[in-house]
Amino acid sequence: MPPRNKVFDLPPEVREALNEKLVSSGFQGYEALAGWLSERGYNVSKSSVHRYGQDLQEEFEEAMGDVRKTTELARAMASEGEDESGHLIDATARIVQDQLLRISIAMRKAEEDPAKAAKQLGSVTKALADIGRVSLSQKKWAKELRVEVAKEAAEKAETAGRAQGLTNEGAAALRAAILEGMS
After folding, report:
1. Number of structural domains, the chain?
2. CA of 165: how far to CAs of 7, 69, 158, 161, 174, in Å?
3. Who wins on pLDDT, 71 or 33?
4. Does residue 97 sit in the same domain as residue 27?
5. How far is the CA of 81 from the CAs of 134, 135, 171, 174, 183, in angstroms?
6. Could you tell me if 33 and 91 lie in one domain?
7. Residues 176, 87 share a domain
8. pLDDT at position 32, please?
9. Sign of the C-alpha dihedral, residues 95, 98, 104, 106?
10. Would residue 63 count as lying in a domain?
11. What is the DSSP string of 49-110?
């Protein structure tokens, strides 16, 4: 197993600033970034910054690809009308779950302190559970909404059918056909 990259030993605020500089520079200028770190008293080689930058760039491009996919999905949903069945929420939840899985794998690779990694994984697990609850709640709400709409449609159809001379049996059959499979 290769030694841990020295960039991970930087304080979080310095590493965050480095991340911002890497993204804003288009993941270029590693020598200048190593010099920037050196000016702040951190001895990190250009090679370490480069390896870290390449990994960050890969993660960044994957994340941006996921954002583009979600945006395209949202546009498609908007063009088809309202997303009553919750496809957008499901797609977003899947993307977030995928990202949380990647984060947990990265934490396992980067973290030397098992207790700290376990605590962070606990946070990731909680986030996954929250996403699952949101998705289930949304699906339950969508089903309840479909049932309610079907009941209203059945009542209106039954009333309209009777007004047009439909027998009680015919109106009941019409109502049953509309409500079939809704409960």
Report:
1. 2
2. 80, 53, 11, 6, 13
3. 33
4. no
5. 22, 20, 31, 28, 25
6. no
7. yes
8. 93
9. negative
10. no
11. HHHHHHHHHHHHHHHHHHHHHHHHHHHHHHHH---TT-HHHHHHHHHHHHHHHHHHHHHHHH
Residue 144 lies in a domain: yes
Predicted confidence (pLDDT) at residue 82 exceeds the cutoff of 70: no
CA separation for the pair 176, 66 (Å, rounded): 44
pLDDT value of position 1? 63
Q: Domain containing 116: what range?
A: 82-183
Residues 43 and 132 placed together within one structural domain of the fold: no
Considering only 65-69, 112-116, 172-176, which range has the smallest mean pLDDT?
112-116
CA distance 72 to 147: 30
Q: How high is the pLDDT of residue 143?
A: 82
Both tokens assigned to 47: 């090679």
Sign of CA dihedral 28, 30, 31, 35: positive
C-alpha of 56 from chain center: 19
pLDDT one-digit tens code per residue, 34-54: 999 999 999 999 999 999 889
Joined tokens for residue 152: 């209203």
- Specify if 156 maps to a domain: yes
- Does 1 lie in the same domain as 46? yes
Burial readout 30-44 (b: 16 or more C-beta within 10 A, e: otherwise): beebbebbeeeebeb
